[in-house]
Amino acid sequence: MYMEELAPEEFERINRFWYDTSWQIGFNWLYEAVGLKTAADNILTDYLTADERCYTLLSRDITEYSRALDDDINLRLHPVYLLLAGYALENIFKGIIICRAYLKNPQSIDKKNFGETNLAHHGLIGFVDGTKFLGETIDLGLKFNDEEREVMKTLDWVVTWGGRYPISKWYKSNDSQKKKKTSETYNFTDKSSIRNPLKSSYPIIECIYNRAVRELEDLSGQSKKNMVQDEEYEPGR
After folding, report:
1. pTM attached to this predicted model
2. In 3-state terms, what secondary structure has residue 60?
3. What is the pLDDT of residue 236?
4. For a FRET experiment, which of 20, 45, 55, 224 has its CA 20 to 30 Å from that of 96?
5. What pLDDT shows up at residue 31?
6. For the residues 105-131, what does the mean pLDDT come to?
7. What are the DSSP calls for the chain, one per residue?
8. Share of residues in the chain with pLDDT > 90 (%)
C-alpha cells in the first residue's frame, strides 16, 4: 500500500512516528553526518587540486595565475568544505547528546518536537563542554585539546553564518560583542581567513570527526539494544 492510499488519520500516525524516530535515534544522525563529511572531502579534493594548479602557474606565468584566481570557481570551495565538515560534526554531537540522554533517562526522550529542544540551532562550541538537553545536563564524553578547540571555534561561526552568507546577522563591535554570541557577529578578519586556509586544520578536523564517529556508533548501538530490550518503549510515545 502506498502512503497516498492511507486514510488521513493513519497517514498522520505513521508520519508522526517517523518524525519522532528520525530525531530520537542516533544512527540517523550518524547517517547524515557521514554523507556530509563525504561531500566535504570530495569538495576539499577539488579545492586542493585547483590550489596546486594555481600555485604551479605562479612560478610560470603571473598573468595566468591572476586569471586563475578570478576564474577558477574551485578556488572558492574551502569555506564550503569547512561548512559541510562543520555540519557533519554538528550532526554527530547532537546524536551523541540524544543517545546519552536516552541512556541516562529513557523517559526524557519523549514526543517533544525537535524544534522545541535546545539542539535546534547551528553551532558546535555550545556542545563541547556539555549542554542542557530536555532537563538533563549531558556531556559529550569527548576530550579536546587546545588546537582542536580553536579549530572548532572557527567551524562554529562557519556553520552559524560564515560558510553560507556574505555577512552575519550582527555587526561585531565592542558593545555588540557583550550582547551577542561571537559566532553570530561579523568580523572581516574572520571572514577573510577562511578564504586563505590554514591547511594544518585538515588533519585536526579529521581526528575530531573519527573520534566522534566512533563515540556515536558505540552509543547508538547501546541505545538500540536497550530499546529492543525495553518491550514498552515506543519512540515518540
Report:
1. 0.82
2. coil
3. 44
4. 45
5. 95
6. 81
7. --GGGS-HHHHHHHHHHHHHHHHH-HHHHHHHHHHHHHHHHHHHHHHHHHHHHHHHHHTT-HHHHHHHHHH-GGGG-HHHHHHHHHHHHHHHHHHHHHHHHHHH-GGGS-S--GGGSTTSS--SHHHHT-EEETTEEE-------HHHHHHHHHHHHIIIIITT-SS-SEE--HHHHHHS-GGGEE-HHHHHHTTS--TTHHHHHHHHHHHHHHHHHHHHHHHHHHHHH-TT--TT-
8. 34
Sequence spans of domains, the chain: 14-229
Amino acid at 51: D
Whole-number pLDDT of residue 156: 92
C-alpha–C-alpha distance, residues 98 and 227, integer Å: 14
Extract the C-alpha cell encoding 121: 540551532
H/E stretch holding 136 reads strand 136-138
